[in-house]
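To the structural biology subgroup,

Please find below the input and predicted structure for 4-hydroxybenzoate polyprenyltransferase, which we are adding to the shared reference set this quarter. The sequence is reproduced verbatim from the submission form. If anyone notices a discrepancy with their own records, reply to this email rather than editing the shared folder directly, so we keep one authoritative version.
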Amino acid sequence: MTNQGGNRDTPPVLSAGLPVCVDLDGTLVRSDTLVDSVLAIARQRPQDLWRIPGWIAQGKAAFKRQVTSAVELDVEHLPYNLPLLEWLRQQAAEGRELYLATAADRALADRVAAHLGIFRGVLASDGATNLAGGNKLAAFRDSFASHFCYIGNARPDAEVLAACESPMVANPDSALVSAMRRAGTVPVAVFDDRTPRFKSWLKAIRLHQWAKNTLIFVPLLLAHAWNADNFASTFAGAVTAFLSFGLCASATYIINDLLDIEADRKHPRKRRRPFAAGDLSAISGAAMVVLMLTAGLALAIALPFIVSAAPGPYALAQPYRFLGWLILYTATTLTYSLYLKRKLLWDVFVLSGLYTIRILAGSGATGVPVSAWLAGFSVFFFLSLAFVKRFSELEGLQASGKMVPNGRGYFVSDLEQLRALGTGAAYAAVVVMTLYINNPESKLLYNHPIRLWLVVPVLLLWLSQVWMLASRGEMHDDPVVFAITDKRSLLLGVLMAAVIWWAL
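Predicted structure (tokenized):
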């Protein structure tokens, strides 16, 4: 919090008996509850989405009433502005009258007020009048004349802030800041708890998850394609495919986060995700989805012109195979996010399949074929990692003392079965690799295939370590994050790469 003098953490001085009116959306709560409610409809009652245009035609206040009636937001886990809420509680404890004044529908505002228990009264939209801007100012003047303090955050609050006795802002947007500057309105306090937007966007697109897309380079590397005449062109195609996959994957992560906002807010770690925490608006997230999907598909369409430009053994036979794999991946990911991730066992098989699709997409992007050995190994290897993910989530559920389903179709009692399935898949992957080493096909690519046997114990050690840590509850619920941050995993990865190089 910053006061009028620019000093942080110094509470503003208000005159005795001055009532404080605080806005809800973007102010007391860091998100827009109307948008949150529409997203809840998309998740819980998708059959009602077609009714939204008709509701909008009835007017803003009626639209808000219809949306609020269709779903019930969990007000307990809304992303409250904690510095502001703490200050309001202090004021309430000192006997100051507080009022929740919002353009949100009255039904939702009443529930928020009842949950917090600090407000003397509520002023809100009633289905006929949208309590924003001039309507809100008129309501204040009817109740308090000009003797009130108001806390807002957006451009429509500018005229109310200019008319009140002690204006305050919370996470103000740039339009409000400009309007207040033009009007000469100086806030007596600023409650700003926002995370820098650039940092929030990096977190929202989950840049670290792009590490999964390096699987696109696997066919190129395992075929030792760097000796081909058109390697530069083929490698450029793989890089283009990597970027295309990354953009589309990030778009699906944002879609998933938008639809899972309410569930994420109840999760001890996921509640800090940018959209759940209110660091980024859902509307900006939707715009970013459109932008990233468009860019990703554009790169996929352009890819054949990059790879097929140079002749060579890996020229594309089917120019748009990669585009097909990309569309399949995106559609499968969205289906997983919307439906399949809550279906027993379907979720882990789809997750493992998404990893394998990346390898097949790499083949489609470069023209390098994928052997049956690589396909078989990847199916079992990534199936084991998918089981690790679910096992770790259930282990965390058990550690928290919860024995109920976690929304994924699993019970804590399934832990032992998941461990058996996951470790079985892990060792099956190693068996596939040993069979490949002893197969004559390995001699086509390696001068010393016998040396590849040294990879086997290293891979066994890593997979065993992953499952041991998962059993102890020490595994991150995303094995990819673990693999790229764990020092032992990185060391073993370098060791395996060195052995493979030695076998060439």
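Summary notes: Residues 231-259 form the longest helix (29 residues). The radius of gyration is 28 Å.

Regards,
Lab coordination
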